[in-house]
């Protein structure tokens, strides 16, 4: 999984062409689907993620680590130049965290299977 980064478009196009060639050379059938969900990480519900981790038998210590990581996520909103008090994030994955892309894939896999 790759998120958009400046200057990486050429690499993504080359990877897609390589994937298509592999499917064609192997005489396999396949479909390539591109999805671009706006604010994708921001849409992940924490309770849903924890439920998936439990259903799919992730170790308890891993689930607790993810929960602790999300417990620390807080945000503030600037309205008319004034910051609101801190609020605990109820959903969303941390941008830039290496684990976030894998947690997002878990959620997407559940949606794919449903």
Automatic annotation (TrEMBL):
<dbReference type="Pfam" id="PF00078">
    <property type="entry name" value="RVT_1"/>
</dbReference>
<feature type="domain" description="Reverse transcriptase">
    <location>
        <begin position="1"/>
        <end position="114"/>
    </location>
</feature>
<dbReference type="InterPro" id="IPR000477">
    <property type="entry name" value="RT_dom"/>
</dbReference>
<protein>
    <recommendedName>
        <fullName>Reverse transcriptase domain-containing protein</fullName>
    </recommendedName>
</protein>
